[in-house]
């Protein structure tokens, strides 16, 4: 479910007068606006308020068209500016018709005098709420306090930054505000929350950004605010609308919380599936499968033949693991010596499986390095930022011409497993869909037919392998897995046939979980 879209639909219904029913007994918005104009005129007469030459009011003429009348007596036909038809009892207005607006105090350390007080800036104002983690102080003189004081119920709107972002101050705490914010105070009991919801709606449809000045940096100025037409319901209906929005939004909040919890459960389920897979508990074993030991013996025989023929150089550090007659695990080296490693074995394996060391089944760390001078403009360059966490998916493709990177790259080939050796990105493991080049933080691994590449990817992303690697990484700023330590990591090897069954089962289960996640929106 798209909860963001659902919220916007609720706000759309609200400002079009379709969220709650109209009550013909409600005092109309036109009467409300007349009362506000009378109140403003009285304040101007008494000197409490300064007359604004730009002030105006909107009315419907005898021809059923909308007009705007200004203080100099002139009128303007604005029918073509009216966004949509309003319900009976509603009226169109501008922000200055229903509220006073003023920018806050300008920051100037050389000129500002007085005592220090907490103040709000654009960073503090989030949608519907405030963030006090960056609360700062400003010097304010006694004669400025009333002008820049934020009172309970004031609507604060960001003039710059994320223009239009707004929240209502609902505290008795003494606090002031800076000139990156508009302070809006509504007349005559107008419901500020209704207009907060309108601003959020207008922001989402792009209207606020559209009217805001500036090219690279937007500013939601007083003139920008004046351009926006606002639908004004009767006071009683404003209250009903806000109550209904809050009721529905609370239900959406609950849905979003359930969504987060379900997403977390899906992630945990995937991790559990991988864990079961490498412990041999995801699919049943079959006696007809060629065992991992037989597979390893055949590969060792092939290596010995290649060494004999001079096709391969013998490695003095080469070894293999076997189970002795005493049921304990031993490691045998090329010089004929053996070592009891039973205490190093992480967990018991099913029949037909075997323990191997990563360095014995792949050329870990042996990469073909390519200088940037030898790369072509259209060569594919894979970076860690192109790989999605936890999913094993490549989310972006960039060429050498786009990257303009001068560092040496590793050459990789289609089908190889590409593994990040950096701790923050250990769960970024992909299978190369085609030949290419990668940055030095990514190692191409070839498992020489011992592992299905997809199973190898599953193993490298499992909680077991991640846990082992986290204990072996070194470095402070950018911890990484050293080649020597990586080669010693013990990994479980199932029969090839079982690897294929495990991969098929994981793909089936993950597809079901991804379908659930997709339906969450």
Briefly, what is this?
This protein is α+β, with helices and mostly antiparallel strands and 521 residues long.
Mean pLDDT: 91
Global outline = elongated
Helicity level, as a percent range?
25-40%
- The poorly predicted ranges are none
Tell me the β content: 15-25%
- Based on CA atoms alone, the radius of gyration comes out at 35 Å
List the strand order in the largest sheet: 19-22-25-20-21
**With helices defined by DSSP (H or I, 4 residues minimum), what is the helix count?**
15
User: For the terminal residues, how far apart are their CA atoms?
Assistant: 4 Å
Overall SS class? alpha+beta
The assembly state of the depicted protein chains is: single chain
Profile the largest sheet: 5 strands, mixed
Written description of the protein model:
Strand 10 (155-158) and strand 11 (166-168) form a beta hairpin. Helix 1 crosses helix 5 and helix 8 packs antiparallel against helix 15. The protein has 521 residues and is an alpha+beta fold. The strands form 9 sheets. It has a 5-stranded mixed beta sheet. It has a 4-stranded antiparallel beta sheet with strand order 5-13-10-11. A 3-stranded antiparallel beta sheet has the order 1-2-3, with no helix packed on it. The protein is built from 15 helices and 27 strands. The relative contact order is 0.09. Helices cover 34% and strands 19% of the residues.
């Amino acid at each position: 479910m798209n909860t963001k879209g659902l919220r916007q639909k609720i706000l759309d219904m609200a400002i079009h007068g379709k969220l709650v029913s109209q009550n013909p007994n409600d005092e109309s918005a036109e009467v409300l606006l007349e009362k506000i104009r009378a109140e403003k005129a009285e304040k101007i007469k008494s000197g409490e308020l300064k007359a604004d030459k730009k002030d105006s009011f909107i009315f419907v003429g005898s021809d059923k068209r909308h007009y705007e009348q200004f203080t100099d007596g002139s009128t303007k036909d604005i029918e073509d500016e009216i966004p949509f038809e309003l319900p009976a009892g509603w009226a169109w207005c501008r922000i200055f018709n229903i509220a006073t607006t003023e920018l806050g105090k300008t920051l100037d350390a050389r000129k500002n005098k007085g005592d220090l007080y907490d103040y709000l800036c654009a960073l503090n104002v989030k949608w519907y709420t405030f963030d006090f983690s960056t609360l700062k102080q400003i010097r304010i003189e006694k004669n400025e306090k009333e002008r820049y004081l934020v009172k309970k119920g004031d609507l604060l709107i960001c003039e710059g930054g994320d223009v239009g972002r707004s929240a209502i101050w609902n505290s008795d705490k003494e606090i002031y505000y800076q000139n990156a914010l508009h302070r809006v105070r509504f007349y005559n009991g107008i419901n500020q929350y209704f207009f907060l919801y309108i601003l959020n709606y207008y922001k989402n449809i792009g209207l606020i950004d559209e009217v805001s000045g500036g090219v690279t940096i937007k500013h939601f100025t007083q003139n920008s605010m004046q351009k926006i037409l606002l639908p004004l319901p009767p006071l009683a209906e404003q209250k009903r609308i806000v109550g209904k929005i809050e009721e529905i939004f609370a239900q959406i909040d609950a849905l979003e919380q359930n969504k987060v919890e379900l997403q977390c459960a899906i992630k945990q389920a995937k991790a559990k599936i991988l864990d079961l897979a490498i412990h041999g508990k995801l699919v049943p074993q079959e006696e007809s499968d060629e065992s991992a030991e037989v597979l390893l013996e055949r590969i060792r025989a092939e290596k010995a033949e290649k060494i004999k023929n001079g096709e391969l150089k013998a490695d003095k550090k080469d070894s293999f693991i076997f189970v002795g007659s005493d049921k304990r695990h031993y490691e045998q080296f090329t010089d004929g010596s053996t070592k009891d490693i039973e205490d190093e074995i992480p967990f018991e394996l099913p029949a037909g499986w075997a323990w191997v060391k990563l360095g014995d089944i792949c050329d870990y760390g042996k990469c073909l390095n390519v200088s940037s001078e030898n790369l072509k403009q259209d060569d594919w360059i894979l970076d860690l930022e192109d790989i999605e966490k936890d999913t094993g998916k490549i989310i972006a493709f960039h060429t050498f011409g786009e990257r303009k990177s001068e560092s040496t790259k590793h050459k990789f080939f289609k089908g190889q497993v590409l593994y990040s050796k950096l701790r923050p990105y250990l769960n970024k493991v992909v299978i190369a869909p085609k030949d290419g080049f990668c940055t030095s933080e990514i190692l191409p691994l070839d498992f020489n037919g011992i592992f299905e590449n997809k199973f190898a990817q599953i193993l490298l992303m499992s909680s077991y392998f991640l846990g082992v690697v986290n204990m072996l990484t070194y470095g402070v700023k950018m911890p990484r897995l050293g080649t020597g330590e990586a080669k010693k990591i013990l990994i479980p090897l199932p029969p090839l046939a079982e690897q294929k069954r495990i991969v098929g089962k994981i793909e089936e289960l993950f597809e079901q979980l991804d379908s659930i996640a997709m339906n969450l929106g």
